[in-house]
Amino acid sequence: MGRYTGPVCRLCRAEGMKLFLKGTRCFTEKCAVERREYAPGMHGQNRRSKTSDFGLQLREKQKVKRIYGIMEKQFRFYFQRASSAVGATGSQLLKILERRLDNTVFRSGLASSRAQARQLVRHGHVVVNKRKINTPNYQVNAGDVIKLSLDEPLTKRVAENRESVKDKAASDWLTVDDKGLTVTVKRLPERSDIQFPIQEQLIVELYSK
Ligand code: SF4
């Protein structure tokens, strides 16, 4: 599955808000959104914001895709799954995204960004229920036990990450045992667990055209 590999701060500036894609740097004055509050590119400072319904819907979809690091094809697939699930499609979509393994590792505070969490998964450092899983899109279930299998330098780095982001990680649905680098999924995430401002209804309207 492909992924965006360009400069991530540009994505935040294009959305006009902090998407927290770069870990601890996002909480410092080095954040690009704080230093340059205008869209990227040559005409960024003159660009007028889109106000049409379609423009708003499109921006909301792009924003969510960027937050979770998902490409269009997979995002559409998640939307289809959400549409066939019981309950409001928008909430279901966000819940599916939250249940991704890379997001779960990030939410636990063991990685400082979803990109770093994805790398831990891809490089085979994540074991779920005693089975190594290297697919970031794996959907976690209630009761899953996720363990990080790391060498000494990485263990130190993960402990430092956890220390710096644990207050910011919203993870009421997870229990983290810092010493053993183990995360237990207490329950499945609810819409209310996602604090970031997202208007999922706009995405539903966009795909329902
Ligand atoms: Fe976005 Fe973080 Fe870059 Fe700020 S530092 S622009 S929040 S990725």
What does the model show?
This protein has 209 residues and is an alpha+beta fold. The chain has two domains: 9-42 and 50-97, Ribosomal protein S4/S9, N-terminal domain (Ribosomal Protein S4 Delta 41, Chain A, domain 1, Orthogonal Bundle); 100-188, RNA-binding S4 domain (Structural Genomics Hypothetical 15.5 Kd Protein In mrcA-pckA Intergenic Region, Chain A, Roll). It is 43% helix and 8% strand. The protein has helices at residues 8-15, 32-35, 53-68, 72-84, 89-98, 101-107, 114-122, 152-165, 200-207; strands at 126-128, 131-132, 145-148, 174-177, 182-185. A five-stranded antiparallel β-sheet has the order 2-1-3-5-4. A hairpin with a 2-residue loop joins strand 1 and strand 2 (131-132). Helix 5 (89-98) crosses helix 9 and helix 6 crosses helix 7 (114-122). The protein is globular. The model has no long low-confidence stretch (mean pLDDT 89). Iron/sulfur cluster (SF4) is lined by residues 8-9, 12, 18-22, 25-26, 31-33.
